[in-house]
Structure formats: structure tokens, C-alpha cells
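To whoever picks this up:

The parser on our side crashed when reading a file containing two proteins. I've narrowed it down to the boundary between the first structure block and the second sequence. Both blocks are reproduced below exactly, byte for byte. First block:
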Amino acid sequence: MWHPETHTFYMPFRECTVTLQDVAFQLGLPVYGWAVTGCLGEFEKFMEGGRPTWEWFQDLFSELPPPNKRFRVLPADATEDTVRIYAHAYIMMLLSTRLFGDKSANQVHIRWLPFVANLDDMGRYSWGSAALACLYQCMCRVTNRNVTNLAGPLYLLQSWIF
């Protein structure tokens, strides 16, 4: 049984929990570095100047999202810029659907734009800490008996169990 006060499972044999070491080992994510907190603050800084979100998206990806909301298959003769654009899109998709997924499971949240804008800085963030915090938050949310669905980095929980 999950206890939100201590972020631990109480098992008949002992208490146990997912730790930062587990996250680093199982997912290979950095657990030291810049905090991935204040996503909205970073987003607000990113959005300074009052430009519409679609303009920021277009600056980052050099095009607006396709009408079907999916990037096409990367062409075999893709330029370096095209590969960069697809890398940004893929990382945003991983952040929104795998690491910090929500119940939609198929939408990419715009809040990840500031983090993906500079690929060189991606490795400086403590993504493992953020993933663990997200898992704890999801587990605490689901202890409410009115909650029927669970979202978040559940594969982390699954791999930890096994």
C-alpha cells in the first residue's frame, strides 16, 4: 500500500520506495544538474515579448505542426536542419508521453518548448529527479479513492517492481 506522507510502499516484509539511484540505474537519466522545476516560469521567460505560441513553435521547428498533428517519416535525404527539427520533436514527444505523460497519452505539452529549444542544455537538467517527483505526485494522487486513472512515468514503477 502506498503512503503519501512518506512516499513509500508498506509491504508485509518492510517499507520500500523508488529512489533516485533506481531512476538513474533503470532509466539512465541524470539525477544531478539543473532542476526541472518551475516549468511555467521557464515557459514564461521563453514566451517574453508576447509572441503567440505558434511563432515560438515555428522558430524552433522551422514549420508549424502538420495538419494531422504528426511529423512525417524522416526523409532518407534529410538535411542536418531537418534532422535537428525531428530530434526536437521526438524529444518533446518523449517528455510529454513517456517521462511526464498525462491521461491524454497522445498530446505534446507546449511547456517543454523552453527545455528542447537548446539541445546542448538538455543533459544539464536533472531529468531523473523530475521523473521521480512526477511518479511520487502521481502515486499520491491515485490514493484518492475518487481517482480512477493513473498517469505518469509508470514504466519506472513497473521496472522497479521487477
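<<boundary where parser fails>>
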Amino acid sequence: MYVWPCAVVLAQYLWFHRGSLPGKAVLEIGAGVSLPGIMAAKCGAEVTLSDSSELPHCLEICRQSCQMNDLPQVHVIGVTWGHVSQDLLALPPQDIILASDVFFEPEDFEDVITTVYLLMQKNPKVQLWSTYQVRSADWSLEALLYKWDMKCVHIPLESFGADKEDIAESALPGRHTVEMLVISFAKDSL
């Protein structure tokens, strides 16, 4: 378990928007050590952390992150991308879905998008706030977003103070190209 550069950038985005977070229902998918979800909870959001139900050690890491940050109110559930589960179906409508570096393996992209799509059915105005590390110019979400009737807005890192090498007072290892996206339903009328 490691705090990846994308998590730091997403946490910076949350901090920049901290005034809009109190009372918001926020779900972090693929949470791992949960830095973005912990930041959202510290900023007053009602947070649920999730990681694969097939990886109980990841769920335990989420619980430990909550415990270390004195956040007993944060829920931890198992959500496996592309699988419909009782925990997923029982979630109330979310306002924001957080996803830090979940677009890591191209074979998982559609499972992530279908999970987000299911959550969007409960609240068509929900937004996916996602950071990802560019690993290949050949990998793209464009066709999947079109297929699932979603749109994407690229958020420049400099617009929220995340364009510095020493972001959030945490030196990121190596050279990275991290992108910030906000994904929502394509139809504004929903």
C-alpha cells in the first residue's frame, strides 16, 4: 500500500474545493490507503470508502486509515468494479465519486465506468472526480465515455495549485504526468 501521486493531486483538488464538501455524500472507489476520501471526510463530507470486496486486506487498510485519522463515522465497504453487490446497491445516492489512479489497467476501464454508471442511475447529477497517471498515449476513455453516455472535462492542474513538483508538501517520486478529470452524464438535462 502506497500513496500514489494521483492520490496527492486528487487530495489537493478536494482541499481547493473544501468549502463545497460539508454534508456531501462522497464515495471513494479503489480507495487503498484512502488519502482523497480521508481529505473529503476531514473537510466535512459524509464519506464511504470502498475497495475490492475480493481483497479484504485492502478494506482493512481503509479501516486503519480511518482509525489513524480519528474518523469513526467513515464507512468502509467492498465494491468490485463491474460487479453488482448488496453493498453497492445499498449505497444512498452520492454527490461525488472519487477515483485516484483507477484507470491503471485498460482491461479494467469498462468495469470502472459501468460501476460509476450504476451509481449515476441513483443520482444523475453525481460527478466522478478522477486523477490518473498517463502511462500510454494509446489508452483512452473517450470511446467508453461515449458508449455509456458520459462526458469528461479536463481540469488543468494549475487551476487548483497542483502543477508544482512539490505538491501538497509531499515530494512525488520520479517524473509523472497526472491528469485531473471530472466525468458526468453527457445530458445536461438529467
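After patching the parser it read the second block fine. The mean pLDDT is 89. The longest strand covers residues 178-185.
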